[in-house]
Amino acid sequence: MGAYEADSMLQKIIDSLKGTSVKVIVSGSAVSMMKEMLDEGNPLFDRFGAVINLKEFDYYDASLFMKEISERDKTAYYSVFGGSPNVLEAIDTSLTLENNIERLLLAPDGRIRSFIEHSLLMEYGKIGSALSIFEMLGNSKKTYTEIKDRLDPANTGNLAKQLEKFINNESIRKVRPINKKNEKKRTFYTISENLIRFYFRYVYPNRSQLELINEKAVFDESIKPSLDTYISNRFESIAHVYFVRLARKGKLPGIVDIGTYWYDDKEHHANGEFGCVLEFRDGYDVFEVKYYKDRMTESAADKECEQIRAIKDFKARRIGFVSISGFDFESDDYVLITGEDLFNPSLAD
Fold this sequence. Notes:
There is one protein chain. By secondary structure, this protein is an alpha/beta fold. The chain folds into 3 domains: 1-54, no CATH class; 59-230, Arc Repressor Mutant, subunit A, CATH 1.10.10; 235-347, Trna Endonuclease, Chain: A, domain 1 (3-Layer(aba) Sandwich), CATH 3.40.1350.10. 44% of the residues lie in helices and 15% in strands. It has helices at 3-16, 31-36, 59-63, 71-81, 85-88, 97-106, 111-124, 130-137, 144-150, 159-168, 194-203, 207-212, 215-223, 227-248, 298-309, 339-342, and strands spanning 142-143, 172-175, 188-191, 255-265, 270-280, 283-290, 316-323, 335-338. The strands form 2 sheets. The chain has a 5-stranded mixed β-sheet with strand order 4-5-6-7-8, with helices on both faces. Strands 1-3-2 form a 3-stranded antiparallel β-sheet. Helix 4 packs across helix 14 (227-248). The chain starts with a helix and ends in a 7-residue tail after the last helix.
């Protein structure tokens, strides 16, 4: 039975129940398919009393599944496994992060790996060069041109439509610097969920290796050397959500936007991006986000500050640091945010 036939059958059932106290709940994990039910041409159009797009947990809510571990470990687990409840409940925090990755994502019969490969990959595989695009993105973000240039020319004809499908089903999202929202060349594509990001960064490219050698060897050779860097990149998105939670609680008066900031320093022939910036009505606050094992030192903070202040045509209102392991100093000059701040119970909804 096709999707349209199923929708027509549901239409008849729902219409037959009008005037009764019976409620029909339609749920599904295929976001694009569920959205199609809301289209005007669909048999179920205008028959829903409520529509709920249930998102995965953010870093804070995900951490409630693992209250007994450190803030640094909570950050690592969320960066790898994301925030889906069925994934989080499979994690055994009495084991190490490495052990959980090996048994859940690298083992041939790993619970989470099997879920990804027997459901999501089958769905993605129906869309042109989907798997190539996801593998290319991995833990990075790329412009449309970068994606197009790295694909086989024979597979780029429908690239715009393919990317639009991924955005519609919420597996890929667009990222634009808060100061360059209308510049196409500064529009980037990135994988939405941490779990899928990790899979395409480390598991998918190493499938052949996983058939030849054991999971620990693959972890040691292909994952361990860059895992902290991977988590550091994801830590920036956690910082963004932390500030979003503060804003929703009214603790950032005057806030306009939260995101990245693209700078062009023509005098020094340099350009780049600040990963975590808060835009207020009277200027910008810049935060450097650090997934250090040890506490951040004042000399390291001063060095970062000098580099920011040296950029021409950009003046930060305030400069701050988010350090998962905290700081070995106090300061009236910088805003200092620790791992304890990120997971403070006052942030709960």
